[in-house]
């Protein structure tokens, strides 16, 4: 096996096949701005509000920031937690880190002490990058607490005002090159770890997904080719910029690889989205299913200018067929369904697929070497059209989680297939239709909530004796979370539970939408809480 002690690489025969087939190249991700600056220096690369960067300007800033990061001590192989909203600084920083071979650990702005502390410990991160304030939350306080409790975190970089934290590093100082060093001394190799993505997972704490320069570049490039991206493409990043969907499916990475323009949306409101589509002549964007009805309502009410929009990608959760059928007629663009995972496998409907395929399936794999099996509980293949668990391996799908060898048996087969936990039906032609999940996980509008993690926090409540969190169907979000509680005293309601979890440093989206108090839990024959019986109560 190739790789490092932190994660297993691909088997040598498979790696040779992927490289020989041309999937894997030699260009590190940090070189993309440099290549495009040489090809189209005056073309617009990045737009954030009134701020705009040509490819030449983007390359200049990436180089400056990389040298400054080197000057403050970051070196190849270091890990840095990046917790930023949709701002241009994310893109500038991300490519600068790639230039150095420093590994960004993608975190969401909504994560708090529990999640960030776990990431810091698991990765030995040496730095934490935050906004000053976002969504009425002071991330500087969070970062100060993390640095105080996690010995490895030596640097805090702030986009905005550092406030009273004189030892924090303003990102603007990096952009000015105040600590310039040399960043070319130890360039990353194509097979080096490039970034770490968070998995929704089914254990109490998030697992981390290792992606290399060569596999992630192929992921973005293949998706961009299927989406027909080129220099005239304008991609609007509506979803959180650190989300795999918004990075490389094709996301900002695939767009810049193709020489197009990336526009950042500060929020996902339909008014904001459509204003940016009209102003910047956006050609493609990506959203999750809960946003689609709001986009349709805004289009119907205010008739925005959507004449430039060619493709609307919808993914991260199942899109109802009846909603899918409305997108083309009402928005005047092509729907592309997306079904993938940060662990690798990416499925897209094709732009020339029949409407029936586009509206009723979640696409097919983007690579000829994506191997897909649909199996029953005994790992035996099921007949085409029958539901089974999706197993996969391929040139951009992980073979093991980062620093988590204990998951090798539960998440991978002996011959290297990744157990996705998704239940699918494979249709004629290879398209997949998602029908459910094996994993004990709640998909709340694309945000994955691990039931076990929330249950563990609920059990810390002084009045809670037993807790079980299950998914309830929801027409808008796909699923909502319901907490069943057995209590010894006065039971907390949903609002009180949310406050309790927030005080424990848990991200707000993980708080149960509903709380049901029951006198006792139902159990299976082997003594486990019977969640099927609980779902029946709903």
UniProtKB/TrEMBL annotation:
<keyword id="KW-0067">ATP-binding</keyword>
<keyword id="KW-0547">Nucleotide-binding</keyword>
<dbReference type="InterPro" id="IPR045851">
    <property type="entry name" value="AMP-bd_C_sf"/>
</dbReference>
<dbReference type="GO" id="GO:0016877">
    <property type="term" value="F:ligase activity, forming carbon-sulfur bonds"/>
</dbReference>
<dbReference type="GO" id="GO:0005524">
    <property type="term" value="F:ATP binding"/>
</dbReference>
<dbReference type="InterPro" id="IPR025110">
    <property type="entry name" value="AMP-bd_C"/>
</dbReference>
<dbReference type="Pfam" id="PF00501">
    <property type="entry name" value="AMP-binding"/>
</dbReference>
<feature type="domain" description="AMP-dependent synthetase/ligase">
    <location>
        <begin position="34"/>
        <end position="402"/>
    </location>
</feature>
<dbReference type="Pfam" id="PF13193">
    <property type="entry name" value="AMP-binding_C"/>
</dbReference>
<dbReference type="InterPro" id="IPR050237">
    <property type="entry name" value="ATP-dep_AMP-bd_enzyme"/>
</dbReference>
<dbReference type="InterPro" id="IPR000873">
    <property type="entry name" value="AMP-dep_synth/lig_dom"/>
</dbReference>
<feature type="domain" description="AMP-binding enzyme C-terminal">
    <location>
        <begin position="453"/>
        <end position="528"/>
    </location>
</feature>
<protein>
    <submittedName>
        <fullName>2,3-dihydroxybenzoate-AMP ligase</fullName>
    </submittedName>
</protein>
<dbReference type="InterPro" id="IPR020845">
    <property type="entry name" value="AMP-binding_CS"/>
</dbReference>
<keyword id="KW-0436">Ligase</keyword>
